[in-house]
Each structure stands twice: as structure tokens, then as C-alpha cells.
Design goal:
Elements: E1 2-6, H1 10-21, E2 25-29, H2 32-41, E3 43-46, E4 52-54, E5 58-60, E6 69-74, H3 81-88, E7 92-100, H4 107-115, E8 121-126, E9 129-133, E10 136-139, E11 145-150, H5 157-168, E12 172-174, H6 179-200, H7 204-207, H8 211-230, H9 239-248, H10 257-263, H11 274-284, H12 289-310
Parallel strand pairs: 1-2, 1-6, 2-5, 3-10, 6-7, 11-12
Antiparallel strand pairs: 3-4, 8-11, 9-10
Helix pairs in contact: 3-4, 6-8, 6-9, 6-10, 6-12, 8-11, 11-12
Length: about 300
């Protein structure tokens, strides 16, 4: 199986490096200084269990030059996804399929609109990894996993084959009973903690400890669970309790990518996180006052960041 990682940030870089380390045929789509560094020095993964450098590495900023891939993982930001899907068309093998790794619940629909639903799996992942310098991915977490499944949740040969590829690389891969439930559970966590962190500018250790912000987090999660239920996604009864237990287990200085992007004045995934809760809630007739608050407070900074990026 030939694997393509479209985007070599924390997730694409970590999982792509692990696959390549295991001898899987992996190609990467990158750009800018990251691309140049990978061409010159390879892709380096710095991790607690040992560093690894993949060199030489097959990388380009034009997907068409990388040749056909059996599966393409999209690890770009949510607002880049539609353009990336169109650009990836020339690199998909005739029976190729794609898997989104974005934090959110709308990515499969975006990809299906461009590539057709038959080519799309649902997907999500977990890793605490980032680009620490061009060509270098630093991973500080010990829990790294990918989760994927058919959009109708049926077992398939391609999900089984993909699961085997990750097992070969020593990476935990899960085909859950419902990929949609798995995506919404992850969404509950990232949208809530991203929104609180971006509004308060405080790390997780503080927002989970203060009774006021802890209750705000629980209220946000209740809203997301209600939106999911209205859209036919039944989250486990203990989903909020388990998500808060996850929050309680994170490092005191932990922050969400949405929070970091907003603080640094970069375009963020606000629209795909808090904005999606608001938008999907309105469509389903579910009130989402906490996420309305997050979205409204952060939108001016998001618009300013996008204007700077565009101009």
C-alpha cells in the first residue's frame, strides 16, 4: 500500500515518519521552508522513545509529481481541505481512497463533495506533536493513535488493510463501531477546550481547576452532545465524564491549537470548531449559548488574522 501524507504538520509528520520508519512506501506533500528542509536533510522525528530521521524522503509541493497513492491522509488545516482535495486528484490511484485527520466533524462531507463519497473514509487521530523547526517534528506525548472507518460504518477490506499497515508500524489504529461517534467525541474535547483556552488565554491546568471555567467546559460539552443527538449521533452516556477525565489527565500547561493560533494572530480553525457547533446547532434547532459566546468573542480576531494572511 502506497501512502500519501498531504500536509506534514504535527499529525502528518508524526504518522508519516512512523510509517516510513517501518518500511511503508510513504510520500509527502509539503511546502515552503519545511519542504526545502525535508529535501535537504530528510524528515526528523524527535520523540521520547528515540529520534528517527527519514532520509531521503519523497516530498513535493505538487501532488501530481508524486505519482499514484492508494490512500491519501489529509493533515492540513480545515480551511485548506477543499483546495487540497482538488489538488490531490491527480495522485489518487484508480481505487484510491482518502482519510481526513482534521479535528472536526465536517471534513468527510467536504472531501465527498470533491472526490465522491465512495472514495472517503471518516477519520480522526490523537498525537501531541508539532513542527519545531523546518524538517523536524517533535512529539511530547506517549498516546498516538489513528481512527478511521467507512462512512456507513460497515467493515471493509480497505479499512482492514489500512489497520494492518499501521500495526506494522507499531502505531495504534482503531476501526470503531461508528467512526462518526468517534469523531464527535474528539470534537467535543477540542471545540470545548479550544474555545475556553482562546477566550481566557489560560492553559488547561487553570481552566479545569477554576470552578467557573470547569462548569463552562461541561456546559459546552452538553451543547455538543445535544447537537450530535439531534443529528442522529448517539454519544455514550458517560461521554462528558470521560472527556473531562481526559482533560484532567493533561499537562498543566497544555493548550489547544486553536488557542495558540488565535493568540499568535494566525488564521485558526475557529469556524470548524466552535463555529461548527453554532452552525450545526442552528440547523438542528438546538441552542448553543456557550459556543455562541466563544465564537462571537473570537470572530473579530479571526477575521483580522485572515485579512492579514490574505494581504
Amino acid at each position: 500500500m502506497r501512502v500519501a501524507m498531504y500536509g506534514v504538520g504535527g499529525a502528518g509528520g508524526y504518522f508519516g515518519a512512523r510509517l516510513a520508519q517501518a518500511g511503508v512506501d510513504v510520500v509527502f506533500v509539503a511546502r515552503g521552508e519545511h519542504l526545502r528542509a525535508m529535501r535537504e536533510r530528510g524528515l526528523k522525528l524527535v520523540a521520547a522513545d528515540g529520534d528517527v530521521t527519514i532520509h531521503p524522503v519523497c516530498v513535493d509541493d505538487d501532488p501530481a509529481r508524486l505519482g499514484p497513492a492508494d490512500v491519501v491522509f489529509f493533515a492540513v488545516k480545515t480551511w485548506q481541505l477543499e483546495d487540497a482535495a482538488r489538488a490531490a486528484l491527480p495522485m489518487l490511484a484508480p481505487d484510491g481512497f482518502v482519510v481526513p485527520l482534521q479535528n472536526g466533524v465536517e471534513a468527510p462531507g467536504v472531501l465527498a463533495g470533491v472526490l465522491g463519497p465512495e472514495r472517503v473514509l471518516g477519520g480522526t487521530c490523537g498525537t501531541i506533536s508539532r513542527v519545531s523547526e523546518p524538517g523536524v517534528i517533535t512529539s511530547i506525548g506517549r498516546v498516538n493513535f489513528v481512527s478511521f472507518g467507512e462512512l456507513d460504518d460497515r467493515p471493509s477490506e480497505r479499512t482492514a488493510a489500512l489497520e494492518a499497515v499501521f500495526e506494522r508500524a507499531g502505531v495504534k489504529a482503531v476501526v470503531p463501531p461508528s467512526i462518526h461517534t468517534a469523531m464527535w467525541e474528539k470534537f467535543m474535547f477540542v471545540a470545548t477546550m479550544g474555545g475556553i483556552g482562546a477566550v481566557t488565554r489560560a492553559p488547561i491546568g487553570i481552566t479545569r481547576a477554576l470552578p467557573e471555567t470547569r462548569e463552562l467546559a461541561v456546559s459546552s460539552m452538553r451543547e455538543i452532545a445535544a447537537v450530535a443527538a439531534a443529528r442522529g449521533i448517539a454519544l455514550p452516556e458517560d461521554a462528558i465524564e470521560r472527556t473531562m477525565a481526559l482533560v484532567d489527565g493533561l499537562s498543566l500547561d497544555g493548550t489547544a491549537s486553536l488557542q495558540r493560533d488565535i493568540i499568535d494572530g494566525r488564521p485558526s480553525e475557529l469556524d470548524a470548531w466552535c463555529g461548527a457547533v453554532v452552525r450545526l446547532g442552528r440547523e438542528a434547532g438546538v441552542a448553543t449559548p456557550v459556543n455562541d459566546f466563544f465564537y462571537a468573542c473570537l470572530l473579530p480576531q479571526e477575521r483580522a488574522a485572515r485579512e492579514r494572511a490574505a494581504g
